[in-house]
Design brief:
The protein is built from two helices and four strands. By secondary structure, it is of the alpha+beta class. The protein has one domain: Ribosomal Protein S8, Chain: A, domain 1. It has a four-stranded mixed β-sheet. A hairpin with a 2-residue loop joins strand 3 and strand 4. The longest helix is centred in the first third of the chain and has 13 residues. It is globular and about 25 Å long.
């Protein structure tokens, strides 16, 4: 599974990075947001705008999201 690690990225650049990453890779993909709730919100909002779905990779790991075409 392809992975995008957003550690150290500025919030302003995240939307474009997520958009490009999702469109240029076969879903599902993993996006690592880290513990920042603001980073996670930017990613989830961007994924929703693209018409895709996100869920935590594991319930105990909120810092990694899986992006899919269908809701789980």
């Amino acid at each position: 599974m392809q992975t995008l690690d957003l550690h150290g990225e500025k919030y302003e650049a995240v939307q474009q990075k997520v958009h490009s990453f999702v469109y240029n890779n076969e879903l599902p993909v993993r996006i690592i947001t880290g513990k920042s709730s603001e980073m996670r919100k930017v990613v989830v909002d961007t994924v929703n705008l693209l018409g895709y779905y996100s869920h935590y990779e594991r319930l105990i790991n909120e810092g990694s999201l899986i992006i899919t075409e269908q809701e789980f």
